[in-house]
Write a structure and sequence with these properties.
about 220 residues, Tetracycline Repressor, domain 2, 2 domains, 11 helices
């Protein structure tokens, strides 16, 4: 039997309730009844459509990350230079999590990673394949370090995004997270670059960027 989609207004209330509940509560303590109460939707309706707390959260996380993927694809159109492509990717991620801190909290601070990794939504194939294609191109062209898998380079870059977000939250979200992207990326670039390539040479940052970095 085909399931009837949720009405748009119900879906929107549920989306907001999932974000609010799981970005501000311990994952193991929060439950579907909490979400139902905040959304003004019955427990049975949510259970009928999602089946479990985990599937409910993962379904929305998949949608939110899908929006980030589409934004990245859209912004990368017309950028040919490898370094500027990767720089843009880092900025887009930091900017997206700054604009959507609830999602960042869920992904990096409350979601049980082992449980999520067992779900198909963890793979984010469209996003990850896009990243890996760019990194492999850089390795093939001799710009990025060819001595490690492209996935290791991706882990290196994504790890800094996650750590930067968590510390930004811990410090009270002071300043702009996205404004740090350029300086953070230059560190990542030096770490990923092919040590035998002239392209690995770090270019000095504009004086304005250095001045804004602080001591």
């Amino acid at each position: 039997m085909k399931r009837i989609p949720l009405r748009p207004d119900v879906y929107r209330r549920l989306e907001m309730a999932v974000m609010d509940t799981f970005s501000n509560s311990d994952f193991h303590r929060a439950n579907i009844r909490d979400v139902a109460r905040r959304a003004g939707v019955s427990f049975s309706t949510i259970y009928k459509h999602y089946g479990s707390k985990e599937r409910l959260v993962f379904a929305f996380v998949d949608i939110w990350l899908g929006k980030l993927t589409e934004r990245i694809i859209d912004h990368l159109q017309g950028i040919e230079d490898l370094k500027e492509t990767l720089r843009k990717v880092m900025w887009l991620q930091l900017d997206y999590y700054e604009r959507n801190p609830g999602l960042g909290r869920i992904l990096f601070m409350t979601l049980p990673m082992k449980t999520w990794m067992a779900d198909e939504t963890f793979q984010q194939k469209k996003m990850i394949n896009k990243y890996l294609a760019v990194l492999r191109r850089g390795q093939k062209e001799g710009i990025l370090n060819p001595q490690v898998r492209a996935g290791v380079l991706l882990d290196f870059m994504m790890g800094l995004v996650q750590r930067s977000f968590c510390m930004w939250i811990m410090r009270g979200q002071k300043g702009s997270l996205a404004a740090q992207a350029n300086l953070l990326f230059e560190m990542v670039w030096r770490g990923m670059s092919n040590p035998d390539s002239d392209a690995a040479t770090w270019r000095e940052q504009p004086a304005s960027a250095e001045a804004s970095a602080g001591p």
